[in-house]
Amino acid sequence: MFSAILIDKTDDGQSVSLKQVDRAQLPEGDVTIDILYSTLNYKDGLAITGTSPVVRKFPMVPGIDLVGTVQESDHVDWRAGDKVVLNGWGVGEGHWGGLAQVARLKGDWLVPLPDAFTPRQAMAIGTAGYTAALCVEALVKAGVTPDQGEVLVTGATGGVGSVAVALLKKAGFTVIGSTGKAAEADYLTQLGADGVIDRAELSEKGKPLQKERWAGVVDSVGSFTLANACAQTRYGGAVAACGLAQGADLPVTVMPFILRGVRLLGIDSVMAPRAPRMAAWERLGRDLDPALLDLIAEEIGLEQAVAAASDLLAGKVRGRIIVDVNR
């Protein structure tokens, strides 16, 4: 038996609770993992609260991230004792995820724990930090360079934003963070932000083309924020879009794209192939100061995860939430 957060659904609606689960109930997979840490991401918050129909089958163990030790393996790449990381692949949505003490997964979904990080640090990064690294990789590959001007990070105090600020600063960029939390300006400065703007400057409907400012953008917010970021991006700049905290709509015109050559780069972290995953983790291992992770992340126990999910969706959380599944 092992402890797990279990989401179930009946005619009366969704229920979520911490339960003892028999190992015989584990789903199919060729690698069994003793989990050390998981996390709470925005998608986990949606799943646990039932705010959005994220979960595709019931019962479900949420948690799109995990790090742990291989207990048993029938996969050629892994053997007992290996430390591994899982991000995405529909885990926590269609396959039991990381908010438990044990997981059974497909070995193809796993990457090795980078030497640069402890298991706890890897979850301080989690899918949010890994997504931030994918965004930075995309901007760099698109030709955005530090000498071209400022780079904007929206939702800067969130998990994606916090890591993106740190990575961009390490890569030599001048970084401006957008946030609705004025009191967190010092936090963003500590991460490497050169300036902070109020998210209200971007969150309402704006003109199709606005004064050029940003050489690049990392956006986890969507909706009007993303539309305004595109409208303010300089000629030939690029915008990496990876989230929808404000909304899934995109009320933008074609003007930034056909008159300024702005490129909108969609970033998918869930089904990304192994090569970009490894490149993202390599960037994290090279450019992210592990000391910053104590600033970015807070830790809770498994039994606190349900309550914390509501706080996350309510915007009461700064940075990352690590879940120690064994307490």
List the helices and strands and how they pair.
Layout lengths: L1 E9 L2 E9 L9 E10 L1 H8 L15 E9 L9 E5 L14 E4 L4 E3 L6 H23 L8 E4 L5 H12 L4 E5 L5 H7 L3 E4 L15 E6 L3 H10 E9 L13 H5 L3 E4 L7 H14 L5 H4 E5 L3 H9 L6 E5 L3
Parallel strand pairs: 8-9, 8-11, 9-10, 11-12, 12-13, 14-15
Antiparallel strand pairs: 1-2, 3-4, 3-6, 3-15, 4-5, 5-7
Number of helices: 9
Low-confidence stretches: none
How far the N terminus sits from the C terminus, by CA atoms, comes to 15 Å
Give a count of the beta strands, DSSP E runs of length 2 or more: 15
Shape: globular
What is the CATH first-level class name of the largest domain? Answer: Alpha Beta
Written overview of the protein:
By secondary structure, this protein is of the alpha/beta class. It has two domains: 2-113 and 291-324, Medium-chain alcohol dehydrogenases, catalytic domain (Quinone Oxidoreductase, Chain A, domain 1, Alpha-Beta Complex); 126-266, Rossmann fold, CATH 3.40.50. The protein is built from nine helices and 15 strands. It has helices at residues 42-49, 119-141, 159-170, 185-191, 223-232, 255-259, 274-287, 293-296, 305-313; strands spanning 2-10, 13-21, 31-40, 65-73, 83-87, 102-105, 110-112, 150-153, 175-179, 195-198, 214-219, 233-241, 263-266, 297-301, 320-324. Strands 3, 4, 5, 6, 7, 14 and 15 form a seven-stranded mixed sheet that branches. Helix 1 packs across helix 9, helix 2 (119-141) crosses helix 3 and helix 2 (119-141) packs across helix 7. The two termini are 15 Å apart.
